[in-house]
Amino acid sequence: MPDNIASYLDSIDIKSFDGDDVGRAKALEAAHQLIYRLEKPWDTLPRWFWREPYTHLATSIALDLKIFETLADGVPKSIEQLAVKSGQQVDHAFLNRMMRMLAGVRVVVQLSQDSYQATELSKALATPEAAASVALTNDLTLTMITKLPAYYREHGYKIFTDPANCPFQRGLQTKSTFFQWLGENTKQVSDFSLLMQGWSAAHTNWAVWTPTASFFSQDDKDAPFLVDVGGSVGHDVEGFRQKHPETEGRLVCQDKPEVVAIANGHAGIKFMAHDFWTPQPVAGARIYFLHAILHDWPDEKSRLIIQNIKLAMKKGYSKLLVQDFIIPDVNPDPLATGIDLNMMQLFGAGERTESQWHALFASVGMKIEHVHKSPLHPQAVFEVDFS
Question: Which of 274, 295, 370, 377 is the catalytic position?
């Protein structure tokens, strides 16, 4: 019986789902749960100690040496060819050990003792978005996380809610808040924008799984239709524009000046520098949209952001849409809980349960009318109106 199970599992791959991404996502989650059930403790612990950390090291080295770019054409390459293409002085034995690590976790395919070929994952790692994500993980997450056990031992095991005085400052040895730090580091602000673009491109745009047609039941043609507040370089509003091209010219994407400066969006989208700590300058829009903004801030700060938008909303017409993670009360998704801990270290903030979302909006005189949950990942779009 076990041999038959292993053979059956070995026959399943992404092609088995014939484009059914929801079915694929459900099977992937079932596979993760199967691993948890099959692993004994000392199967799991070495994975944490050695396989996962050194996969990240080997990936970072390969990015520095342009390995993924070199393999991206699909043609197998020898260690000697990879070393030459890197443009660096690389010891062949050193490189082969890094490549063996990547082959062991299926980042690349090993064809012979010193010959390797690309996978879909390694091709993705050849893109600027993935490279920036790994770089930001090195410069930020790993730099910070190794210092945090000592921080909590010294300062107490509690949640710090002041974004100017939380674990981020200790981890990065800075007095700046996270977003100030980004503004001070040109490379990191670019990497952060690329990370957001990569994440958005890899996930189905909110406009696909949210019933946006209902928002056209009222439409003041003389007013902006959608204002994306803190919308980075416009990936979310672009998805809406593609679904509803008739709104071109009435779409606004707002962010910090340094982010707007690197935006290269569609001509039908107006990019505007705006600080969401100040009153919203665009009044009377049909939709005000916040994606992954409120999870950056504890409730006190989130209320200020919402109130600044609420002042610009037209009662009985405008809607506030908030896309963010939603954590179940039990059996939460580890992606959501991992990002929750990341928000706690960076901002003293975090992800919220559905009841916490309801309480947050109620505290500013608003209510959630509908919760549109993504079929693929633990996020939702909350449709919010005046109470």
Answer: 295
